[in-house]
């Protein structure tokens, strides 16, 4: 069985289109990314604008929030 990790998007982003794994810039996101990359399994980013997004997907900067 393969583990699947989900990481929430964050407000701090690069100001250009990037792979989603590189787009988000907060210390929390970087720690979460480092954790999932050390472990076997697939991982995805929960983007407020794009939904469930693979880390290799290229998207532009946006300002949608997951906070209600």
Question: How is this fold's topology laid out?
Answer:
Blueprint: E1 4-8, E2 18-19, H1 20-23, H2 27-38, E3 42-47, E4 51-53, E5 58-59
Parallel strand pairs: 1-3
Antiparallel strand pairs: 2-5, 3-4
Task: For the structure shown, list the relevant keywords.
two-stranded antiparallel sheet; DUF6884 domain-containing protein; globular; DUF6884; alpha+beta; 68 residues; 3-stranded mixed beta sheet
Short structural summary:
With 68 residues, this protein is of the alpha+beta class. It contains two helices and five strands. The longest helix is centred in the middle third of the chain and has 12 residues, at 27-38.
Description:
With 68 residues, the chain is of the alpha+beta class. It has one domain. It has two helices and five strands; from the N terminus they run ββααβββ.
Which percent range describes the beta-strand content? Answer: 25-35%
Q: Tell me the strand order in the biggest sheet.
A: 1-3-4
| Largest sheet geometry | 3 strands, mixed
Helical percentage = 10-25%
Beginning-to-end CA distance, first to last residue = 34 Å
What is the overall pLDDT average?
Answer: 88
Radius of gyration: 11 Å
Total number of distinct structural domains? 1
Query: How many E-type strands?
Result: 5
Q: Class by helix and strand content?
A: alpha+beta
Gross morphology is globular
Q: How many separate helices?
A: 2
Unreliable runs, pLDDT <50, ≥5 residues? Answer: none
Order of H and E elements: EEHHEEE
